[in-house]
Amino acid sequence: MNEIRAITTFVRAAALGSLRGAAVDQGISPQAASHAVMQLEKALGVRLFHRTTRKLSLTEEGQRLLDSVEPALAMLSSALDEARHSKEDVAGMLRVSAPRAFGLPVLWPYFEEFQKRYQNVQLEVQFDDQFTDLVTDRSDVGFRGGPPPSGGSIARRLVPIQLIVCASPDYIDRNGAPRTIDELAQHRCTGYRRANTGKLAQWQFRIGDEIVYRDVPAAICVNDTELETQAVLSGLGIGQLGSFNATMHIRSGRLIPLLMQHATEYGTIYIYYKHRTEQSLRVKTFIDFMVERMAGNRNFFLDPSELRDAQQPQPKRAAKRRG
């Protein structure tokens, strides 16, 4: 027995005084309405209606049941309407997860813009360097840098992540610029300690067709990409920065790219989410909003012509060894 259907039929029959009227109201046959109420009476072990050829009236047990179920049905109807309207309104809770590395410098300004535009959305943001399983963590949308997420999620490519060795003009004026990877040992370098492992990130270089990893001693070590970028901008050392942090500073001349013949593309920033048929309008709107603003956004990476120009030899300066 479909208990919800049977109770709804009972309530409508009581309100209309007719099983036939309840059947028309619900879009079912009179036989189906009568059967539903009879099944409900059988399950409860009581009669709910006094039936005559002209009149349908509640028994005492039927009246008590009606008094009990009407408020609950009204709440259920309201909840269903709210869920139904969530597909039509850009409103409600939206849970988003992203890595700390580019969450604040890259994504947060767009989150702010979205929140100002859609003020009926309650945005809950979690910055976490661990990969987020959307189902387990009850997130609606996730962002990830590196290879595309696995596990059944839909992933859309936003921007590439390049790893670029760079320094400030002031640092180069004082200390010169390394011409080879090995010459980095003669310089002060910054380091990034991964929050999820506690380990100092190795630097990546392209040598021919291979990617090699090197441990570069850090004169200053941080666990935040924005802090590392600021350390390099301040002339504290040479750093290998993600293009999402370095690109605009390189274009403005505040940072000088180095060793570009060895630059690597670490991966891609992806947005990932569950199948769109399962999404509310607020989730679909957020995904479309972020894709529109970030997909191929040149604020966050150097295009091929810029990479070629950056690979031109830098003016040679005498390197000063650390004493």
Automatic annotation (TrEMBL):
Residues 1-59 form the HTH lysR-type domain. It holds the Pfam family HTH_1. Keywords: DNA-binding, Transcription, Transcription regulation. CDD domains: PBP2_CrgA_like (cd08422). It comes from the Bacteria. Residues 304-323 are annotated as: Disordered. Belongs to the LysR transcriptional regulatory family. This is HTH-type transcriptional regulator DmlR.
